[in-house]
């Protein structure tokens, strides 16, 4: 899941992020400078160990991000900001700030309304009757004097967005900020001011989402790599599902067109070994996102190097067209961000008359865990899983012959804690769903201690598709 700490700029409040929250899904926390309330300013920190940690900072807000937050984050997204407010024409900007200080003392509401107009920002969100003149002045003085040091950020990922029409902070200052940190990317947004309009937001969301998607994959890859040595012994559900997978594979074994066979998410080679036995004379490609998994798979198999290839491959990013006679994937699809888009790309990569065969964990898995969370009023942190009925409808829309089946496995565990330990040992701990706070975690641990043995249901979907 995503954990987002957001820092608004001078003259705004956390309401600045209201529209962003609607489209940018995650657990949000706000650094409130309290310009329109007497609320105490609080220090923020990330609360969840396995989250994708994101900082969003607008303008001066970047200067209030603590070192602790910066050092623990995965991604920093910066809007309309700067290292030092005074650029090449410092005499002019210093004179402008001096005038702002004077107007702030005389009529803070009028100053803020004119400032909002200059920012291309709506001002109806704030309650000017509650304006805190002293706090605005304090941060205006800070803006006048402070210079941001990002020397400790080398190697960190930073996305810097700046409006081309920004009349408050020239975009040259945003470019300079990005250039000081290796790994930063600068994006100049056309027709955007100091505050981005809804249209401008829509333009940059795909850039942010693409970066975050790659980060989720990195975490999934790391977790599976850590679990590579224990996966084969811990993933009993995978072993129990092999029979149904091979039954479907044997039904098309002798009717494939010419062409290579690709396995996506080969893991430790549980299926790979049987695929090799079925097609000893075919060109086979075994792929996985995790290099550790590939190494174990390669060590497990006896193979002819002239016919068998092992490679690291992101199964979600396939661009090949009409290349493969058969694409197989066992219990990997549920980890992908864009499942339907991925299946479309797999289908395009098949030759005419080729087959796609995959299995995946489905949405009715772990119903016992759901029941415990519902009864104890604890957030369910299970990752969202594909719905088998929806998968069936989508696969039919691709055209060709489609066969969809399911298998439900009931696997006993000594305790609820042993079930969670099993998830960790199979690498399945990269959370994209809800998270728990400290009190909820303590409550779950207490429940784990009280609960005795239990049986967990795994709903596994199988699909076989032949391309016309």
How would you sum up this structure, described in words?
It is a single chain. The protein is an alpha/beta fold. The chain has two domains: 2-222, Rossmann fold; 228-365 and 383-405 and 459-466, Rossmann fold (3-Layer(aba) Sandwich). It is 40% helix and 20% strand. It contains 16 helices and 13 strands. It has helices at 18-23, 67-72, 90-106, 108-119, 133-145, 171-179, 198-226, 228-234, 236-250, 272-278, 291-300, 339-349, 367-376, 388-397, 416-425, 438-450, and strands spanning 2-7, 27-31, 52-58, 75-79, 157-163, 184-189, 261-264, 284-288, 308-312, 324-330, 350-361, 401-413, 454-466. The strands form two sheets. Strands 9-8-7-10-11-13-12 form a seven-stranded mixed sheet, with helices on both faces. Strands 2-1-3-4-5-6 form a six-stranded parallel sheet, sandwiched between helices. Helix 2 (67-72) links the parallel strand 3 and strand 4. Helix 3 packs across helix 4 and helix 3 packs antiparallel against helix 5. The protein is elongated and about 85 Å long. It starts with a strand and ends with a strand. The relative contact order is 0.10. Mean pLDDT is 86; it is low at 227-234.
